[in-house]
Amino acid sequence: MEAYATALTYAIPFFVVLILIEAIAAKIMGQQINNSMDVIASLSSGMTNTMKDILGLSIVILSYEWMVGHWAIFALEANLWLYLIVFVWLDFAAYWSHRFNHTVNVLWNRHLVHHSSEEFNLSCALRQSISEIVGVYFFLYIPIALLGVPAEVIAIVAPVHLFAQFWYHTRLINKMGWLEYIIVTPSHHRVHHAVNPEYIDKNYAAIFIVWDKWFGTFQAELADKPPVYGTLKPVRTWNPLRINFQHLWGLWRDAWRTRSWWDKLRIWFMPTGWRPADVAAKYPNKKIVPDVYQRAKYDSNPSKFLIAWSWIQLVISVTLIYYALANFGAFGYWSVLLYMSIVFISILSYTALMDKHWLTIPLESVKFGLAVAIIYQTS
Predict the structure, then answer these.
(1) Which of 159, 173, 202, 367 could link 345 by a cystine bridge, Cβ 3.0 to 4.6 Å?
(2) pLDDT tens sequence across 264-285
(3) Of the candidates 32, 375, 68, 275, the residue with the CA atom closest to the CA atom of residue 172
């Protein structure tokens, strides 16, 4: 975990610099790609995901280290070729885990947050899940565990593979010639994030677009069909906690309301968006607009003061998290937990305020209590 924290101390400044460069380039090119509240929501979501990972708040059914320790048939030694082969295998696994997340009702809750932005820019790449608590895709790693690929190789390749998916979340780069046939490009990923009927559930690949072409899920970006971004059912909030769990709440509510016991059971594993017939008839989803080009983006109509206040809160939160990451080894776990808790509550508070939601008042009270606890602990 300490190694991951150290990696993030290098990655975070790199991401921030690229986001700033994209914003400046967009300004020069005369393109409007950023909305302040959306960018703040995206970066805030990224911070909540970072805190979840650093605190180890996840359940691993079977860890890779355990599998390779108990099941390995061979004992491979790390070398350049092994690193390259593992990178390709992780990309293959990423394609299928990504596809499962999109096509199974309960699994969509793990990934919805990444698609929740109605913009498409580098900051939305950082919208990552805090609801992805249980590791369910261990089976995709069984083949390389059987071959005896060392856990240390996975520990190095996995973050590289993840960070390599950042750059193509942009509208500023057009099609890239022959690279379009090999790797995932911004054009490919714009399609993936779009809700146009032509683009839904296409281009799942992380690095190599060949997986989509081989498995029948590829769609090129069409000149006469500009992508419309977001989710079919808009989240209509800036708050990362509400975004992360609203689909799951909807499933629970539909499972409770339906009279069919069979539907109560199967709703979780049906295709994403499936609802029991009796519930869909009685409680139609009014958020879904059939014509995506007629959709209005979410806007909480913030004042200039609220926008400025939200930016200040974001900068403070980023600074506090970066300080915790840089000093991770010197902190005890419970100190990190308390420290991260106040940052987490602060993020929920100011994003609730961005929505003009009453929750910001009790959240500020909780934050004050945690701040007192930190002062008492360190005095």
Answers:
(1) 367
(2) 999 999 999 999 999 999 999 8
(3) 32
